[in-house]
Specification:
- There is one protein chain.
- This protein is mainly α.
- The chain is about 85% helix and about 0% strand.
- It has two helices and no strands.
- It is elongated.
- Helix 1 packs antiparallel against helix 2.
């Protein structure tokens, strides 16, 4: 994985980790469920991360099977 992609993945993971930590604290301290828009935002970040990682995997698989 290139350095740029690696940094992009790290950035996504840091953001997701922070958001989940805040939601967890809200559940523990305030006994409140997170706002649905916050949960959707984290879900969208996870989807973006999956897309970022999946593109690399699909390209790699295509190049491996082009010889057949």
């Amino acid at each position: 994985m290139s350095a740029i992609k690696r940094e992009e993945v790290s950035s996504h993971l840091r953001y997701i980790r922070l958001e989940l930590r805040e939601m967890h604290q809200m559940l523990l301290k305030e006994d409140l469920l997170p706002d649905i828009s916050e949960a959707r935002e984290v879900h969208a970040q996870l989807d973006a991360l999956l897309d970022l990682l999946s593109d690399k995997r699909v390209k790699k698989m295509k190049s491996q099977f082009e010889n057949f």
